Amino acid sequence: MSTGAIVQSLAYIGVTSPAAERWRAFGPDLLALEPVADGADGSLRFRNDELDWRIAIHPGDADDLAYLGWDVGSADGLARATEAIAAAGCEVHGGDVALAAIRGVEDVAWFLDPFGFRHEFTHGPHIGATPFQPGADCVRFVTGEGGLGHAVLIVPDLDAATDFYVGAMGFGHSDDIDMGLFVRFLHCNQRHHTLAFSTVPGMVGFHHLMLAVTDPDVVERAYARARADQVPVAMTLGKHTNDEMFSFYVR
């Protein structure tokens, strides 16, 4: 898919959780993620490919999104991305060497979007010192040029979100689905969508992160582990109508 997006893929994600320590088991045992060394910022970290890390869990008072990291490909890409976002009226913070070291990238710049979500533009992710070793299963995650996966946000206004994520960040509009909850899907690479958003009255926040694997049997085994461990399942096994992804949702 060709877009005018200023980002190439979802590079990493950070969330806060009052149950962060439970992720030491949840990450590898259910999701088959590999735990790696905790971050210098105190976060628990996991990866699903050869990069240093992909998912950070920060101890906090609430379950919330801390930041989305976007790969912009190069120093030139970072300059273009920051210029575009500054032109859209957001204050961009760059040149933080300490933050780049914490994130394990060559360079990083961050900003808050009009809805309060923190986004980080990065390039030059560090590669792990050892090959990726999955947790509970023999699994191969789908990453590469498509990035970590996709993220879904709850925004206060669909039109304003479309104006910003499509107009300012250059995402392409993939499609919409309305099954009682209207969801808009956007792409920046070959994935059907890397970012999606919806509205829920009185709510603004993070809805979910999707991780893709190469084998549907892996999904079924993960679902069986979730049921056996009595992990809350928000949606049971099924296939999406737009990207045909076979999946389930856990909390």
Question: Any descriptors?
Answer:
251 residues, alpha+beta, 2,3-Dihydroxybiphenyl 1,2-Dioxygenase, domain 1, eight-stranded mixed β-sheet, five-stranded mixed β-sheet, 5 helices, globular
Structure described in brief:
The chain is of the alpha+beta class. It has a single domain (9-250), classed as 2,3-Dihydroxybiphenyl 1,2-Dioxygenase, domain 1, CATH 3.10.180.10. It is 20% helix and 33% strand.
Helices and strands, with pairings:
Layout: E1 9-17, H1 23-29, E2 34-36, E3 44-47, E4 55-59, E5 64-71, H2 75-87, E6 93-94, H3 97-103, E7 107-112, E8 118-123, E9 150-154, H4 158-168, E10 172-178, E11 182-187, E12 195-198, E13 205-210, H5 216-228, E14 233-239, E15 246-250
Parallel strand pairs: 1-4, 5-8, 9-12
Antiparallel strand pairs: 1-5, 2-3, 3-4, 6-7, 7-8, 9-13, 10-11, 11-12, 14-15
